[in-house]
Known about the structure:
Distance between the termini: 40 Å
Number of strands: 11
Number of helices: 0
Radius of gyration: 14 Å
Shape: elongated
Strand content: over 45%
Helix content: under 10%
Structural class: mainly beta
Amino acid sequence: QVHLVESGGGLVQAGGSLRLSCVASGSIFSIDVMGWYRQAPGKQRELVASIISSGSTNYADSVKGRFTILRGNAENTVYLQMNNLKPEDTAVYYCNADLRHQVGGTTFRYWGQGTQVTVSS
Length: 121
């Protein structure tokens, strides 16, 4: 059993900043990828940013230069630093992790419960 718990969402004015956190716990041998997705009302869930075990990162074009994804000192932790927020960033943000339960095992994807980010104009 694996749990991903997000925190740090809230209401902020346009131009402001928020920092989201996600901690994975449970039966984890290794984590290959951690990432953040978001889903706005009436829209599909989309990738915001991801980071692989080597530290390489990937960002959606809409957030490049404004958002930064970071791994914590504990490898089961990931952060999303969001600066210069815009009203179109309003969405539920979900953390995900692609991980293995044992050495050489299959990779499984897990999701957090989501945290609301609302940016007012």
